[in-house]
From TrEMBL:
It catalyses: L-citrulline + L-aspartate + ATP = 2-(N(omega)-L-arginino)succinate + AMP + diphosphate + H(+). It is an enzyme of class 6 (ligase). This is Argininosuccinate synthase. Residues 8-121 form the Arginosuccinate synthase-like N-terminal domain. Its EC number is 6.3.4.5. One of its GO terms (biological process) is argininosuccinate metabolic process. Pathway: Amino-acid biosynthesis; L-arginine biosynthesis; L-arginine from L-ornithine and carbamoyl phosphate: step 2/3; Nitrogen metabolism; urea cycle; (N(omega)-L-arginino)succinate from L-aspartate and L-citrulline: step 1/1. InterPro entries: Arginosuc_syn_N, Arginosuc_synth, Arginosuc_synth_CS, AS_cat/multimer_dom_body, Rossmann-like_a/b/a_fold. The lineage of its organism: Eukaryota, Metazoa, Chordata, Craniata, Vertebrata. One of its GO terms (molecular function) is ATP binding. The keyword Hydrolase does not apply. It comes from Cathartes aura. GO terms for cellular component: cytoplasm. Keywords: Amino-acid biosynthesis, Arginine biosynthesis, ATP-binding, Ligase, Nucleotide-binding, Urea cycle. SUPFAM superfamilies: Adenine nucleotide alpha hydrolases-like.
Amino acid sequence: MAQPKGTVVLAYSGGLDTSCILVWLKEQGYDVIAYLANIGQKEDFEAARKKALGLGAKKVYIEDISKEFVEEFIWPAVQANALYEDRYLLGTALARPCIARKLVEIAQREGAQYVAHGATG
């Protein structure tokens, strides 16, 4: 195991990619705090919490940010008629900045030096 390098708050879903990056960050010597954002999706958050802790997360935050997601991101996008390829609402694209904002807030609260995500792209 590498020398301690600091704390990273990881945007975590409980899926394969974010679980692999959690383990990899631990192997690189980081303390990992997992953050799961509830933006209204159907998800087994407790199972994801247990998985993150089982993989070595120091702490897990799960926050319901669905109200601010709708009020501050979805509603303005609908008012602006924001569409992808003139066909689809921008749900996933709109969720990213909402989640990132909370990720940074948690990093500041925890005194973490880093934030990360484990999305495939």
